[in-house]
Amino acid sequence: MAQFLQVHPENPQQRLLKQAVALLTRGGVVAVPTDSSYALVCHLDDKAAVEHMRRMRQVDDKHHLTLMCRDLSELANYARVDNRQYRLLKAATPGAYTFILEATKEVPRRVSHPQRKTIGLRVPQNRCLLDLLELHGAPLLATTLIAPGDSDPMNDAQAIRARFEHELAAVIDAGACPLEPTTVVDLTPMDGGGDPALIRQGRGPLNALGMG
Asked: In a designed cystine with 204, which of 1, 2, 96, 172 is the match (CB 3.0 to 4.6 A)?
């Protein structure tokens, strides 16, 4: 049975977030609010938790998972970023964007794309999620919470609990999220001097990326 942790959206109770961190450390998958929709998160190095999260979404290893990072300096530990890519990242983060970049050796091979060796990376703006990442002390592996058979992400904590109460360790309720996923941009073409490629237009505006 998933724990239901109700927190203030702007001043989340640290004791409740610490409970969520403890559940993540023990291998749990937690539903968290973001600045786009709700997401599923788990510990980066927990193979069983990663596989469970993929089963919940019904996606295979070619589906890009995302590392939620506290800031750009942390992101740079897990992705290879050149000067052009960094300038674009700096202009658009924190915010509702997911960027596809080449993974470094800090990323376990089982969570990066099996052929491309890439990973999604994101610096969120949601206060509750940022505090959770700070208490966790490291990035969390994430995927947008889109239930199997649905096309839209979930944004209501009570509905998430009702649907996944036996599969989640906890649901963090900080109020409804926007009902729109992140904008996903592949930055790997920039390695060869090309332009970033739009994969999915979502909540993050394109003009912040110079792509409007």
From this structure: 96
